[in-house]
Amino acid sequence: MARRLRLDEAVDLFLDHIKVERGLARLTIDAYGRDLTRFVAHVTGRGREDVDDVTPTDVADFLIALSTEGLGARSRARTLVAVRGLCKHLVGERWLDADPSELIDAPRTARRLPGVLGEDAIARLIAQPPDTARGRRDAAMIELAYASGLRVSELVTLPLADANLHAGFVRVTGKGNKTRLVPIYTAALVRLTRYVEDDRPVFVRDPKERALFLTGRGRPMTRQGFWKLLRDYARRADVRLPAGGVSPHKLRHSFATHLVEHDADLRAVQAMLGHADIATTQIYTHVGQARMIQQARKHPRALKQPRPR
């Protein structure tokens, strides 16, 4: 008799697979783990212990249960991605003959346009840090984030050796351990070069430390640390965003949107952002259009005309 695979064992095997063979980031693996733990709890509560006990109805009812609990469509869609990944892996490993999630439609999600800082707001933000070693470090981080569109995790883990200041680019290892080269403009290079040559040595405690950006204790800057200092500088510069406030990810959105608004090729923007699918990058064309409509409403004739009833 063929051995049956328990659901909890299947989840462990799948998480090992995406960690070792696909090289996904720890945060992504943790998110998959949380989503699949909920799924397993739901189906085992219905008496399903093994992977080949699960039916399409179980998957559909799981999504309905999540909706009843108040989970939004975007979160439910993300959870379904995790379940589909598990099922597809089990089919590939021949633990399942058919994928019970294959015919389940993903919840419809309204595509939200990301918050974007204006170019003047970016300039005010970069100008906020004081002319001290720490201030110049902070300004270099903000400028590099905006100049390159790096994810905050990529920014704080960027090794010193991957900033090629002579050639004018940074080498970034992103999701799935994929490497990309991102060119950066002259002002960012000048600021980054001064930090590396004059200020980074002030923070070094261990000569073997590889991180580009260091804290006062000589440790790599953290995601939370950069977010806090960015929030403080945004408050000082009176830079605000209605949805979620200023964050490192908003610098990434601003980078992409401003490039698109200045007629950058969308494929080039995709490569710099490290997007696997250009459909993800295309949202920035919509952001550009939304901002264009907003600006058009400031036309003097538009301001003088009464709104139609």
Spell out the blueprint of helices and strands.
Layout: H1 7-20, H2 26-44, H3 56-68, H4 73-92, H5 119-127, H6 133-148, H7 152-156, E1 163-164, E2 169-173, E3 179-183, H8 186-203, H9 223-236, H10 248-261, H11 266-273, H12 278-281, H13 283-296, H14 300-304
Antiparallel strand pairs: 1-2, 2-3
Plain-language structure description:
By secondary structure, the protein is mainly alpha-helical. A three-stranded antiparallel beta sheet has the order 1-2-3. The chain contains 14 helices and three strands. It has two domains: 86 residues, DNA polymerase, domain 1, CATH 1.10.150; 178 residues, Orthogonal Bundle (hpI Integrase, Chain A), CATH 1.10.443.10. Helix 1 packs antiparallel against helix 2, helix 2 packs across helix 4 and helix 6 crosses helix 8. The chain starts with 6 loop residues before the first helix and ends in a 5-residue tail after the last helix. Helices cover 56% and strands 4% of the residues.
Please state the structural category. Answer: mainly alpha
Inertia-based shape:
elongated
Unreliable residue runs: none
Main sheet summary: 3 strands, antiparallel
Mean pLDDT: 86
Through-space gap between termini: 75 Å
Second-tier CATH architecture of the largest domain: Orthogonal Bundle
Give helix and strand order, one letter per element, not per position. HHHHHHHEEEHHHHHHH
- Overall radius of gyration: 24 Å
Strand content: under 5%
Strand segment count: 3
CATH topology of the largest domain: the name is hpI Integrase, Chain A
Strand line-up of the largest beta sheet:
1-2-3
Q: For the record, what CATH class of the largest domain applies? A: Mainly Alpha
